[in-house]
Amino acid sequence: MAFSRATFLLAALLAALLVVTSVQGSGQDEDALDRESLQEDVSLDNDHAVSYKGYKLLSVAPVTKRQRKSVIRLAGKQGVQFWLAQRNATGSFVAQILVAPGAVARVTRRLKDKGVNFKIVIQDLQNAINNEVTSLRDTDAIESGRPFVWDKFHRLSAIYAYMHQVARQHPELAEVKTIGKSTEGRDLLVLKLGRKSQSVKPAMWIDGGVHAREWISPAAVTYIIRELQKDTGLLNKMDFYLMPVANPDGYEYSHTKDRLWRKTRSMHRAANATKTALKRSRPCYGVDANRNWDSHWGQRAASMDPCSNNYQGPHPFSEPETKAASEFILRLAPVAYLSLHSYSQLWLMPWGHSDEPSRHDLQLRKVSLKAVEAIQDVSGHTYQTGSINTVLYPISGSSLDWAHEKAGIRYAFLVELGDTGDYGFVLPASEIEPTGKEMLAAVREVAKAAIEDAKSK
Ligand SMILES: [Zn+2]
């Protein structure tokens, strides 16, 4: 497509960005984030929660090559965190960077000096977070009989209670399965939705919350649960396995301590470090649960630094969360796989590790187009589509590549939900229903194609 030169350029830019961040000992994110550079700047409140008071989110739109370079050079700089770096649909480069209060003057001066267009989209991130938290109060009361709602973000216990409630109310089609335990001992729960039948039906896997701070993702999965349980026609033809919170430790941590937490909560020290380096290195928490899968693990664009936001872990499936999910998926052998992330409205296909197309590329593209058309019909949102490697940048050890390559799931997709940058990770709860609705339409398209496919075999 005409887009390919632009995407190639972007890949090159992001590769450069990666080099910069790894030299700094920090990570590259699929959201192009370098969190460690922020770590020293974030302060602790009395209740030991990380405060983002005075942090500003900047949307940056460099036009010339020089301008792009100067923006990319900001990666790894003190007080600068990339939330996003990609080409938009028109081919122009956009980035969103979170800037600590102490770095705002320096960063904006630099952008002005280079003539780079930018605007401040969030004036004070802590304000945005506080507004979000206000709407969270008292949402854990589902056990005491209050209904689960979709205009609030819920804590893990409420989401789990909702899953159990669905299973209790619909024993003929719903069942909660515990597939393992997290590092901190939390249950890993999957809800199965499907009419009981004599024959084995094709199955579809849908997960959310792999990255803790992407709160819209678990919320969208619970919306899909709400709607799918009513669709007995579809549940006669297919079984759905839905895991709203694939990283429960990280999810809870993002609610209680650090709204921008991304990884799991295991603890690691740098491997293969020299004795002095090891002495100096502090252990860090968490593995990027989307770099830890046994598919081209550790090859490209993942970090070996335990303190990086993209730390791949000491070995594939080092995390109990990814290990349990992968073992369950292998036994299940689903025909379709969908992993929901946020943000930037992308419908992504394999591969992440390579720019070679999948041998199922044609079918994947066909289904992707149907899915993004369905989304457009429902919400008017335009999701860009293509492989992770071409639309974003190379990543290795991703669950999507593993699902397609190792689990042999033909219809495997990763979705970056909304928004496109007005709120980023701190999306208002009013977006839960619209997002759930557009994803449900896409899920139906994938299911349709996968059922047809299974029939023809
Ligand atoms: Zn993510």
Automatic annotation (TrEMBL):
Top-level taxonomic group: Eukaryota
InterPro entries: CARBOXYPEPT_ZN_1, CARBOXYPEPT_ZN_2, M14A-like_propep, M14A_act_pep, Peptidase_M14
Name used for this protein in its record: Peptidase M14 domain-containing protein
GO cellular component: extracellular space
Keywords: Carboxypeptidase, Disulfide bond, Hydrolase, Metal-binding, Metalloprotease, Protease, Secreted, Signal, Zinc
Necessary cofactors: Zn(2+)
UniProt-recorded Gene Ontology molecular function terms: metallocarboxypeptidase activity; zinc ion binding
